[in-house]
């Protein structure tokens, strides 16, 4: 099997691990002395894999980028997942709005000409409506904006996974939803900006659990108000990114609208999901953000016994199954912020770049800040390939003339 090339034998591996345990933590040095890396280590169990789960999959790197220059403003921009997808579809991301300075640094690092409304010059706080509206006007954004407003308001308040990092006795274990004073109502601030500037179209993304928190129908009323204001909107839908070419199970709530009197037809899901195996056969030579964690011999000894899809209960990490989409990439880190999943072919956690590939970021897109915060940026992002397909659907439905269709 391709993934077993350059793997050491189990007996040699066990010998190295036993020696490292005796020296209490010198595994990285023992491997280096033998000219080995963590990628040379192996699991005890492999099985024959069907070729289709190892075949190259769709990536933005293989897509011809469009340059139609349809203007967009990105709200809650994060590390730029929506921005990247929309740019490949031919949209011009003229402004990105982001609250977190580390995320802002990543946005600027990937596009030196990008206007980023966020720290250190601005707060980037969407809840400061009038203040931010004034800044947008100063940057040339006017009512009846001829392009798209898009964004994914922070989802932690509605996410099951985000809250179950805490113990059941912790108040944070319960999804706070709209009761979260800091983040629970930012989606309604986004609605306010749509009504104020009346863009030709909008796209909103969130976790699937958001509707379960809408017990009193606040989101429905907000969407109905946009309809009353002249928008035609899609029925809110929950999509799995794995049905749109993304090698990852990631359920997202999507709603889009336009005031141009046309109906937005969202892309249809495929009948199959996208396996993640081929992601880990791609070369990582000379790519950015590929720093791997130096695990202890004790951790490796546990990890190497896991089957495909198995969970290490102590570390609460899962070995990915290459025949399936990856489990959802989480906003973890290397210290204090959780970890990524386990590589399917080497008993170690993933690097930021490997997580970014599962999220479908192009390899030339870089993430700034400490390694832990890079994981946070990648895990919080919208998969750019999914964003691209949603953007193309909006472009075809709204910005293509009937004669061109």
Could you describe the 3D structure shown?
There is one protein chain. 28% of the residues lie in helices and 11% in strands. It has 405 residues and is α/β, with parallel strands linked by helices. Helix 1 packs antiparallel against helix 9.
Summarize this structure as a short list of keywords or feature phrases.
single chain; 405 residues; alpha/beta; DNA Methylase, Chain A, domain 2; Rossmann fold; 2 domains; eight-stranded mixed sheet; two-stranded antiparallel ribbon; 12 helices
CATH superfamily of the largest domain: Vaccinia Virus protein VP39
pLDDT < 50 stretches: 162-167
Mean pLDDT: 90
Order of helix and strand elements from N to C terminus: HHEHEHEHEHHEHEEEHEEHHH
User: What is the annotated CATH architecture of the largest domain?
Assistant: 3-Layer(aba) Sandwich
Judged by helices, strands and strand pairing, the structural class is alpha/beta
DSSP, total strands: 10
Can you count the helices? Answer: 12
Strand percentage:
5-15%
Q: According to CATH, what is the topology of the largest domain? A: Rossmann fold
How far is it from the N-terminal to the C-terminal residue, by CA? 46 Å
CATH class of the largest domain: Alpha Beta
The tally of structural domains comes to 2
Tell me the radius of gyration.
Answer: 22 Å
**Which descriptor suits the 3D outline?**
elongated
> Share of helix among residues?
25-40%
Give a quick rundown of the structure.
By secondary structure, the chain is α/β, with parallel strands linked by helices. It has helices at residues 10-22, 27-33, 81-88, 101-110, 129-138, 160-163, 186-197, 218-228, 297-303, 352-358, 371-380, 384-398, and strands at 70-75, 91-97, 115-117, 148-151, 201-207, 232-233, 237-240, 251-258, 311-312, 317-318.
């Amino acid at each position: 099997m391709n993934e077993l090339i350059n793997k050491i034998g189990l007996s040699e591996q066990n010998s190295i691990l036993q020696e490292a345990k005796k020296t209490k933590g010198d595994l990285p040095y023992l491997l280096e002395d033998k000219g080995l890396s963590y990628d040379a280590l192996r699991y005890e169990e492999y099985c024959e894999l069907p070729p289709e789960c190892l075949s190259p999959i769709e990536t933005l790197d293989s897509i011809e980028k469009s340059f139609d220059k349809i203007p967009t403003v990105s709200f809650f921009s994060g590390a730029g997942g929506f921005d990247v997808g929309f740019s490949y579809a031919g949209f011009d991301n003229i402004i990105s709005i982001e609250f977190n300075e580390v995320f802002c640094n990543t946005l600027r690092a990937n596009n030196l000409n990008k206007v980023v409304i966020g720290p250190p010059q601005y707060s980037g706080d969407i809840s400061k409506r009038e203040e931010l509206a004034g800044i947008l006007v100063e940057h040339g954004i006017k009512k009846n904006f001829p392009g798209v407003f898009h964004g994914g308001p922070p989802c932690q308040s509605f996410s099951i996974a985000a809250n179950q990092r805490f113990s059941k006795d912790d108040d944070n274990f319960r999804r706070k939803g709209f009761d979260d004073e800091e983040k629970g109502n930012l989606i309604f601030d986004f609605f306010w900006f749509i009504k104020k500037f009346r863009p030709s179209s909008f796209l909103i993304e969130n976790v699937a659990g958001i509707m379960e928190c809408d017990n009193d129908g606040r989101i429905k009323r907000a969407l109905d108000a946009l309809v009353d204001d002249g928008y035609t909107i899609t029925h809110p839908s929950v999509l799995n990114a794995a049905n749109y070419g993304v090698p990852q199970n990631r359920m997202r709530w999507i709603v889009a609208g336009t005031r141009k009197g046309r109906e937005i037809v969202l892309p249809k899901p495929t009948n199959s999901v996208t396996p993640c195996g081929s992601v880990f056969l791609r070369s990582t030579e000379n790519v950015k953000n590929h720093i791997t964690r130096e695990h202890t011999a004790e951790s490796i000894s546990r990890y190497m016994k896991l089957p495909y899809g198995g969970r290490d209960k102590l570390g609460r990490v899962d070995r990915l199954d290459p025949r399936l989409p990856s489990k959802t990439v989480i906003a973890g880190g290397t210290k204090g912020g959780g970890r990524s999943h386990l590589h399917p072919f080497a008993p170690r956690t993933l690097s930021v770049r490997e997580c970014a590939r599962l999220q479908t970021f192009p390899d030339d897109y870089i993430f700034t800040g400490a390694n832990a915060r890079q994981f946070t940026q990648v895990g919080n992002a919208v998969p750019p390939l999914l964003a691209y397909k949603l953007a193309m659907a909006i472009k075809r439905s709204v910005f293509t003339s009937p004669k061109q269709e």
